[in-house]
Design goal:
About 30% of the residues lie in helices and about 25% in strands. It is of the alpha+beta class and about 450 residues long. The chain has a five-stranded antiparallel sheet with strand order 2-1-22-21-20, with helices on both faces. A five-stranded mixed sheet has the order 17-9-5-4-18, covered by helices on one side. Strand 4 and strand 5 form a beta hairpin. It is globular, with a radius of gyration of 24 Å. The two termini are about 20 Å apart.
Length: about 450
């Protein structure tokens, strides 16, 4: 499709031709039943290169992460780190969380194990070898672990992993079928009750939560691993923390959760800094479209010693930080940090393509924009764009952009390097009602986005 368009464009160039070609493509798609298209292309200086309904609000899907991550970098700075404090009162240990998303296995090592090592070292320095209780303080975040507008029938999927001020392994468990049985990581105390059954060689492994615990079916000798979102992130953190202490020789009698009005007693013995900077977290949120991390980034915007953070406070902070970049706050309606939230009653996670372009332009002018730019996947190379924009016209690496998709919304916003080495910004959003056919399949809208950018490259020069 793109090749045919570019062949047709080879004989024409200039702003008028560009507008004519893009209008033809946009209007053709927009005229179809239950499909709406919004496009905005701008120079870094603010010149509108092309607009098609670009000032109308659209459901953004994961392009909400553009708003969340840009605002966080502006408010908190790229070097910001989350912290987890330990307070000791006799033989009672308080663990006070702030929403560290990095307590997980990472390519550079297992940050959760490093945290546990530092906890035990601090206890030993205070001559503590056993604890009467551990109290988990996750009160700095007041929002529910899962947004009420997330699809309820998908809550066990990794992209619906629940968030909290204390959470481990991205709010997920890894289930591995091996040796005729099941391994669950990270280790928990008490362990997860698992009902597993070998259903035949070569059978794919599946797992789900039931009232009695975890159910696993498939080839129990395959070595296959799958990830599943936990039910309660704080409760899971407590079981993981207890198992980690006891494996290191520190006994723990009980784990409790802090009551709403309790004060943290004792003295602080550790202020653990997260393995990630905010820039690291933004990179994961945008490169891999990690919803868990994006939600904790949004909640970090609302953190304050005076009150607990909520999604609503974080969303207000997003507007406060992005309004100076030129966004129209009246068009923006943000329901979460990731873009997963949706509603059949009232549209949410809305913004106009023009607002996304304002953010992209504004970040290009600020020092915080360096990490933001690097967090966006390179077309044909990285993340969700690894298999897209591989045609010759997009080389070398002319597209850096954030993808977005939920049922009913497909989006792409980012930076485009033209043939003349001019950097321009763009946002292309399609909202639609899915009808179960190829007409409303996301592949069609991805191809449309690619054809629009290919036309801009061919005609902008």
């Amino acid at each position: 499709m793109l090749g045919l368009i570019l062949t047709a464009l080879s004989a024409v160039q200039g702003p008028a031709e560009l507008k004519s070609v893009l209008n033809s493509a946009a209007e053709k798609l927009n005229k179809e039943k239950d499909i709406e298209v919004g496009i905005r292309v701008e120079s870094l200086g603010g010149e509108v290169v092309y607009d098609y309904q670009g000032e109308d609000p659209f459901v953004l899907a994961s392009n909400v992460k553009v708003l969340t991550t840009a605002a966080a970098l502006l408010q908190l700075g790229p070097d910001f780190r989350w912290h987890t404090e330990l307070w000791l009162d006799g033989t009672t240990l308080w663990v006070v969380g702030s929403g560290d998303p990095s307590l997980r296995r990472l390519p550079a090592g297992d940050a959760s194990e490093v945290f546990l090592d530092q906890v035990v070292e601090s206890l030993k320095e205070n001559r503590i070898s056993s604890l009467s209780s551990v109290v988990l303080d996750a009160r700095c975040i007041a929002s529910p672990p899962r947004n009420p507008l997330w699809p309820e029938d998908q809550w066990q999927e990794t992209y619906c992993a629940p968030v909290a001020a204390l959470a481990v392994e991205g709010g997920c468990l890894e289930i591995t079928a091996s040796g005729g049985g099941v391994r669950v990581a990270p280790a928990l105390d008490p362990p997860v009750a698992v009902d597993f059954r070998h259903t035949g060689k070569g059978k794919p492994v599946s797992a789900w939560w039931a009232s009695r615990g975890l159910v696993v079916r498939g080839d129990m000798y395959s070595g296959e691993s799958i990830r599943l979102a936990v039910r309660d992130p704080v409760e899971t953190f407590g079981r993981w923390f207890k198992a980690g202490l006891q494996s290191r020789g520190v006994l723990c009698e009980r784990v409790a959760v802090a009551e709403s009005e309790e004060s943290v007693p004792g003295s602080r013995i550790l202020n653990y800094q997260s393995a990630w900077t905010l820039a690291d977290a933004v990179a994961l949120a945008n490169l891999e479209s990690d919803n868990f991390t994006a939600e904790l980034i949004l909640l970090a915007l609302g953190n304050s010693p005076e009150r607990s953070s909520t999604t609503q406070i974080g969303a207000r902070k997003v507007l406060e930080n992005l309004e100076p970049l030129g966004v129209n706050s009246a068009r923006i309606k943000q329901a979460d940090g990731s873009g997963l939230a949706r509603s059949d009653i009232e549209q949410t996670n809305l913004a106009a393509p023009a607002d996304l372009c304002a953010v992209l332009r504004g970040m290009a002018e600020r020092v915080e924009g360096r990490g933001f730019f690097r967090s966006l996947p390179i077309g044909g190379v990285q993340g969700r764009l690894a298999r897209r924009f591989q045609g010759p016209i997009f080389q070398p690496q002319r597209v850096r952009a954030k993808t977005g998709w939920i049922s009913g919304a497909s989006s792409l916003s980012g930076y485009l390097l033209t043939i003349q080495d001019e950097v321009i910004v763009f946002s292309i959003v399609v909202n639609y009602v899915r009808d179960g056919t190829a007409r409303t399949h996301n592949k069609r809208f991805r191809d449309f986005q690619e054809s629009i950018l290919g036309s801009v490259l061919a005609l902008r020069g």
